[in-house]
Amino acid sequence: MSAIHRLLITLEHDIDEQYQYQPGEIIRGHIIATLSRNEQIRNITISIFGEGNVGWEDEKTGENNQASETYIDSKTVIMESQMGKPLVLKQGHREFPFEYELPENLPSSFIGKHGSVTYILKGMVIDYKNNVAAITSEPFLVLRKKPLPESIESPMLLGGSKRVWGGCSLGKITVSAAVNKHGGIPGEDILINMDVKNRSGCMVKAIQASVNMHSIYHAGKKTTSFSQCVNRKRDEPHMEKNEGRRWMNSRLTVPPYIPETKLEHCDIIEIHYTFQIRLEIEGNHEICLESPLLIGAHPAGLELPNKNYSRNSINSEWTVRARGLVMEQQVMLSLKEEDEMKEWYGGVIPELRSDAAISNPLFRQGSFLNKQGRYPEVLEYKRKQNGHLEELPEIMESTKL
């Protein structure tokens, strides 16, 4: 039985255990081993792996379509025996540091209906008999900081109407809406003003504003797509004839863990977003208004190395595994490790978690996502009055026409 009671990987900027990095950033951390007694080992290694996978079954033919691509596959030896002599790990708590500079051309992490982009670190201890003494893994997120164009700051205007029969008469329902911008960054609020008027005999049962994600998956010449709502605000006023409904300064949060528009540097998955307003009307009628929404972020980072500082000086001890070759002592992730990954993701696609204001490592005070030093998920839209900043109240109210 191995003397290693516990083996784990910790990373430096750990906020609520949600590790998040951007391409080009330096990952720094430790492999930590807790031993019940002295142990003779051959080496301690750490690997970093990033890959994209897609797969789905054709509903008509039953054919399975699959594709994958590898973004990182590197390994380094933290410590190893010399001259054929065993290396002794002494009893107690032992920490071994490591660092790795992420490549610039990594796609953002993503888990969707038919595919994913995931990243993981794996640590392993090989005993002197060449057996695996302990193994551990730690997933982490990569999110690209794609700059958004200045044009997104212009308002998004949406409007439409529909004539419906109700109560033996034909009437019209109209909706007009203005959104404060054409895009946003994960964790940020977008501001909605809307006016709905019901001059028909049908009840308007619900009004919904949502951010929708549209993902396209490629496997060879085959493609499939999937659309989903990643966050929404729903209002159920049950508006009768000659009644109206007004939204003022209503906030809808862009979920914190969604990737940027297009999912750059991934050739098998594409992502686009839309902002949608939908009215549910009695009699299975609806009004649906939709416009493209750009998702990106500020380009600054947490710890990007100086351009004059060569990546080779950090990654020189890491070896890149060639495709199709099996590295010596390669061990597949155990079912336990897979369960740990699911637990880390909450067992749910991150962008579909119910709590929109998930704590985000980059949303701490002083983060580059927030120049005011406040958390973006609770930023308030403000106006000047008598020389002072005043919070704009969020209003949903009914009106009479």
Automatic annotation (TrEMBL):
SUPFAM superfamilies in the record: E set domains
- GO annotation, biological process: protein transport
The record, for InterPro entries, names: Arrestin-like_C, Arrestin-like_N, Arrestin_C-like, Arrestin_domain-protein, Ig_E-set
Q: Which GO terms describe its cellular component?
A: cytoplasm
| Pfam families in the record | Arrestin_C, Arrestin_N
Gene3D superfamilies in the cross-refs? 2.60.40.640
**Record-stated family:** Belongs to the arrestin family.
**What is this protein called in UniProt?**
Arrestin C-terminal-like domain-containing protein
Upper classification of the source organism reads:
Eukaryota, Metazoa, Spiralia, Lophotrochozoa, Mollusca
